[in-house]
What does this fold into?
Amino acid sequence: MRKKFILYVLCIICFLLMISFALIAYAKTCSTAINAKNYKAEMQMLNDFIDKEQQVRKADKTLIVYYSYTDDTRKLANMIHEKIGGDILEIQPLELYPDDYNAAYAQGRKEVEERIKPQLNNNFKDISEYGTIYLGSPIWFGTIAPPVASFLYGQSLAGKTIIPFCTYDGLGAGQSIEEIAHLSPNARVTEGFAVKRTEVEKSREALAKWLKRID
Ligand SMILES: Cc1cc2nc3c(=O)[nH]c(=O)nc-3n(C[C@H](O)[C@H](O)[C@H](O)COP(=O)(O)O)c2cc1C
It folds into this structure.
């Protein structure tokens, strides 16, 4: 009888031990699953953070982009580049304007008057990387040159900052800033810098002051 009782108690103890082991094993599995889940979520958050950080860093990049027919705006663009660095890119029409100034003048007049946007030969695929764009143009008939209008027309510049600069031969920046704002309605267009073509070299001090002002 006593033996039977001991056997009975032992059985109960064994049963309880088995249940305890089973419960511990189950708890461990659950916690590993939860840890794995947390780890995955944390990694996802970290990756999202890195992606966002990279996007912000990319968007901070600066591009100087310009068109120039007789080199004045190119000179000014290079002076800006010397001062601020970043990337620099020339806008090139697919078909160059005639070397003959009068012929180019006549073609330019027609394009401005008829709002023609000449085709460009550049590939501006990577423009999305830039948050700030210094945009240079000669003044043609009181506004930006048509290749610059083509550039703006072909880009999504929403959310970017456009900083206009131009060279002219008598009548200043004209309607160029309004035209830039019109062609890129969701961009922020800042105060521009306009220099008479004969003053480009002498404009270094004024340029430095303007760059400081818009910074
Ligand atoms: C087709 C054409 C139209 C122009 N129209 C104007 C104008 O309306 N107002 C002005 O001040 N200068 C005008 N100019 C002069 C240029 O703006 C000036 O020479 C400028 O510095 C040229 O820059 P670039 O050498 O980068 O082409 C015109 C020049 C050309 C070729």
User: Anything to note?
Assistant: The chain has six helices and seven strands. The two ends are 98 Å apart (CA to CA). The mean pLDDT is 87.
